[in-house]
Amino acid sequence: MSTLLVGTRKGLFVLDTDGADRAATALAGPHFPAVPVSAVLADPRDGAWYVALDHGHFGTKLHRSDDRGATWTELPAPEYPADAGPVPNSRVDPTAPASLKMVWCLEAAHAAQPGTIFAGTVPGGLFRSDDHGATWALVRSMWDHPDRPKGNGGGYDEPGIHSISVDPRGPGRYAVGSSCNGVWVTDDDGATWTLGTGMWFGFMPEHLDDDPAGQDPHRVVRCAAAPDVMWTQHHCGIWRSEDAGLTWTNIADVAPSSFGFAVAAHPTDPGTAWFAPAHSDEQRIPVDGKVVVTRTRDGGATFDQLTDGLPQQDAYHLIYRHGMDVDGTGSLLAMASTTGSLWLGHDGGERWERVSAELPPVLCVRWT
Amino acid sequence: MAAVKFAKAFHRHTICPDATVPGATVREVLDAYLALYPSARGYALDEHGAVRKHVTVFVDGEQVADRTGLADPVSDQATIHLVQALSGG
After folding, report:
1. Chain B residue closest to A10 (CA)?
2. Cβ pair A57:B48 closer than 8 A
3. Interface predicted TM-score (ipTM)
4. Contact A104, A38 (CB under 8 A)
5. Which chain A residues are closer than 8 Å to B15 by Cβ?
6. What pLDDT sits at residue A202?
7. Is the predicted pLDDT of residue B87 greater than 70, yes or no?
């Protein structure tokens, strides 16, 4: 039995499935009814579930469950210290002190660092807890880095970290994806950072077009078994790295579109990844009203369009950055949309099965 | 002493019963209250102590203008209401 956490605009749902075609499924919830769930994490080291709530009125909150959702404990939320200063390119108030707007992703650190959790936030700060979320600290080496203030909002009014991709080869090696502050790579547990290069927009003023600190990678993932291979997607196509995020190569002209937000990397095959395309930066709807998943199995040289079981007429779903995930076998996918559909993708996405078309807008899905 | 009352919407998420606490300004009153009920702090104020954007504070029915410093005076026998914005969907 596999379990999927589904964070929606109206609460957390939990799907249990046996993974078979026309699967035996049970959708439970909502936990935190009517509260937006902006990030979820099932810690593979101890089984704890973490959720980030985006209350809107009442701020961002974190909760942990040690019993698979039977009970929840509120944790302190990350706090920006008073000396963090303002967010220079904030479209809210570039003079106000940085304050937590949202936790956009939660990630468990390396297996050798039990209890260490990362939180990626809007307005662009990376937070770290070394005690299972009981206390949090802003990672100052990144926040105080001279390239961090170059970031802009992308989707939100201030920059935001949506991806923390941990390299399983050893503790302290991870990459951080920010919209729009690029991909940041560390191999010394955040003591120093290197910005990934190679991405470009194609529409910015020339001197900014390929600035690594201004890029908008939408979601950054890696192949667990070949951790140098990473994938992302931004306004100008799909990008692949073969050096753990230090340099990126463009993959353009993928049919029906190379624009989108969600990407899942096969856990063992570095040539395989899945994407959920939208029409374009300017039109964030499926091409021709057809929901498709694109899949490459040869490192991005060619792509399949997977459609079996996905709506192919009058369908206007959008899949957010965290709206697709693949399980540890690489066979069972989950995908969910802003119009409330949740699908399971069997046999590597060859066949899709809609589990629900009635959910609230889905912000994130994640296998436990 | 001032009476502090959180609107119903807060009570679903945190512990914030009606209470009477000392203080000569909104800040002093809220600090005294939140010392008794610390879990409510993050629901009303951000990490810098400012009133959250979608929360409004009233003193005897008058909306507090200083949402950052919370320096508005509070008379003895005053009532402070904390109310969430009516928004969203």
Report:
1. B89
2. no
3. 0.86
4. yes
5. none
6. 82
7. no
- CATH topology for B2-84 is Ubiquitin-like (UB roll) (3.10.20)
Domain ranges for chain B: 2-84
Q: A47: part of which helix (H) or strand (E)?
A: none
Closest by Cβ to B52, choosing from A57, A74, A77? A57
> Which tokens in the block code for residue A96?
């106000």
Residue where the block lists tokens 């909104």: B26
Cross-chain residue pair A74–B43, CB shorter than 8 Å: no
Nearest to A79 among B14, B47, B54 (CB): B47
Cα(A93)–Cα(A83) distance, rounded to whole angstroms?
16
State the 10-residue block means of pLDDT for chain A, 368 residues long: 96 92 81 97 98 94 98 98 95 93 98 97 98 98 97 92 97 97 98 97 83 96 98 94 98 95 98 97 94 98 98 98 97 97 97 96 98
Long-range own/partner contacts, residues B65-69 (CB < 8 A, 24 or more apart): B66/B26, B69/B27
- Predicted pLDDT of residue B80: 97
Q: Does residue B48 sit at the A interface (CB-CB below 8 Å)?
A: yes
Instruction: Say how far apart CA A94 and CA A76 lie, in whole Å.
Output: 26
* β-sheet bridge partners, residue A11: A8
Cα–Cα distance, A235 to A261 (Å, whole number): 9
Mutant choice from B13, B39, B84 vs A, greatest count of A C-beta within 10 A: B13
Per-chain mean pLDDT for chain A: 96
Say how far apart CA B59 and CA A331 lie, in whole Å: 59
Residue ranges per structural domain of chain A: 96-361
Pair of tokens at residue A70: 């039977």
- DSSP characters over A2-16: EEEEEEETTEEEEEE
- Looking at the domain A96-361, which fold is it? Methylamine Dehydrogenase; Chain H (2.130.10)
Angle formed at CA A46 by CA A42 and CA A52, multiple of 5 degrees = 35
**Burial of A83 from C-beta contacts in 10 A (0-12 / 13-18 / 19+):** exposed
Give the CA angle between residues A130, A133, A139 to the nearest 5°: 55
* Structure confidence at residue B89 (pLDDT): 58
In angstroms, the CA B66 to CA A119 distance is: 32
Q: What is the pLDDT of residues B26-43, one digit of tens each?
A: 999 999 999 999 999 999
What's the pLDDT score for residue A21? 66
Tell how strand A60-65 and strand A117-122 pair up.
Answer: unpaired
In residues, how long is chain B?
89
As a whole number, mean pLDDT of residues B13-35 equals 98
